[in-house]
Amino acid sequence: MSAKLDINMFSVDQSSEITSTVTTEDVQLFSQITGDTNPVHLDEEYAATTSFKKPIAHGMLTAGFISAVIGTQLPGPGCIYLEQSLKFRAPVYIGDTVTTRVTITDINIRRKRLTLQTQCIVNDKVVVSGEAVIMIPA
Predict the structure, then answer these.
(1) Per-residue pLDDT averaged across 70-88, rounded?
(2) Handedness of CA 45, 47, 51, 52 (dihedral sign)
(3) What is the pLDDT of residues 99-132, one digit of tens each?
(4) Contact call for residues 131 and 85 (beta carbons, < 8 A)
(5) Where are the beta strands (DSSP E) in 1-138?
(6) For position 2, what pLDDT does the model report?
(7) What is the tens place of the pLDDT at every residue in 26-39?
(8) pLDDT of 1
(9) Kind of pairing, strands 15-21 and 80-88?
(10) Mean predicted confidence (pLDDT) in 33-53
(11) Going by DSSP bridges, is the β-strand pair 97-108/80-88 parallel, antiparallel, or unpaired?
(12) Contact 82, 135 (CB under 8 A)
């Protein structure tokens, strides 16, 4: 069992990240789980007619990597996800390696809340950005 979270164990500018490579299987499973069968994600022939020219990963699949960092590393197991804003800035293609980073930008000790800058990056380009608010349980 992991150590219990305490709001006092965190500091502004503290960050953590994970790296994940998006696979065809990831996109297919995400589509099956969510029911999002948009052909831009699943059909190479269709995707070739779009501005992307080939299938792209679901934006929310990419954003899901943010949840992985928050729930497993920073703040970590036991934290409660309260809010998340997202801006999808560029497509993520199958085979892309996504580095997902969260950085603490504010700590509200009284309310036991952390505000985090959230980013997904492919080849040094931010593809998803946003802000999350996380509660640290009492």
Answers:
(1) 97
(2) negative
(3) 999 999 999 999 999 999 999 999 999 999 999 9
(4) yes
(5) 15-21, 80-88, 97-108, 113-122, 125-135
(6) 58
(7) 999 999 999 999 99
(8) 47
(9) unpaired
(10) 97
(11) unpaired
(12) yes
Axis-axis angle for helices 24-34, 59-72 (nearest 10): 90
| AA letter at 113 | R
- Of all helices (H) and strands (E), which one includes residue 25? helix 24-34
| Collapsed DSSP state (helix, strand, coil) of residue 71 | helix
Return d(Cα 105, Cα 114) in angstroms, integer.
8
Please count the other Cβ atoms lying within 10 Å of the Cβ belonging to residue 108.
13
pTM as predicted = 0.93
CA distances to 31, 87, 91 from 114, rounded to whole Å, are 31, 20, 28
Tokens of 46: 């269709």
Q: Which residues contact 47 (CB under 8 A, 6 or more apart)?
A: 39, 40, 41, 53, 54, 55, 56
Q: Among candidates 137, 134, 130, 131, which has minimal Cα distance to 113?
A: 134
| Cα gap 38→15, rounded to integer Å | 34
